[in-house]
Amino acid sequence: MRQDSIFLAQSDTTAGLLSKNPKILNLCKSRPESQPLLIESSHLSGLKKLVRVPNKHKNTIRKAKNSTFIYPNGKAVRVVKDELHSRFLLDFQMLYSTSANPTGKSFSKQWAYEVCDVIVCDRRGFKESSPSKMYKINRCKIQRRR
């Protein structure tokens, strides 16, 4: 696999585009290269390599499902609990992720197929559903973002 490969996969929340390179994901969605993306990790141990989790929130983060946390260093990371998607992520440890739709529009299977390099299909197929809940955390508090 090339470093710049774009994968189309059904995550635990919605159909998404994943890659090791965040710039190429922003490019295919016609967004600024510097726009931050969500990082998906298959294990909590992968989280340790990316961010420092405040002690007060460790238990909350460990038990959360379908939730993304924005950490004090500005990175947004989601630990995937879904068995099928987690199995796909195991080979990569972590991947940058964005929804598989043109910016501001709804999911289009045809557009997603054109943009991606590798299609990862499982028994669920591809469907658009609600995105993960998003929380911003700091040393003391949690604030819901979406």
What key attributes describe this structure?
alpha/beta; DHBP synthase; nine-stranded mixed beta sheet; 23% helix
Give the strand content.
25-35%
As for the CATH topology, it is DHBP synthase
Domain count = 1
Which stretches are low in confidence, meaning pLDDT under 50 for 5 or more residues running? Answer: none
Tell me the number of strands: 9
pLDDT averaged residue by residue: 86
Tell me the name of the CATH class.
Answer: Alpha Beta
Major β-sheet strand ordering: 7-1-2-6-3-5-4-8-9
Task: Name the helix and strand elements from N-terminus to C-terminus, one letter apiece.
Answer: EEHEHHEEHEHEEE
Summing up helix and strand content along with how strands pair, one would put the structural category as alpha/beta
Q: What is the CATH-assigned architecture?
A: Alpha-Beta Complex
Determine the oligomeric state from the structure.
single chain
The rounded distance between the terminal residues' Cα atoms is 34 Å
Radius of gyration (CA) equals: 15 Å
Shape: globular
Task: Kindly state the percentage of residues in helix.
Answer: 10-25%
By CATH, the superfamily comes out as DHBP synthase
Sheet of most strands: 9 strands, mixed
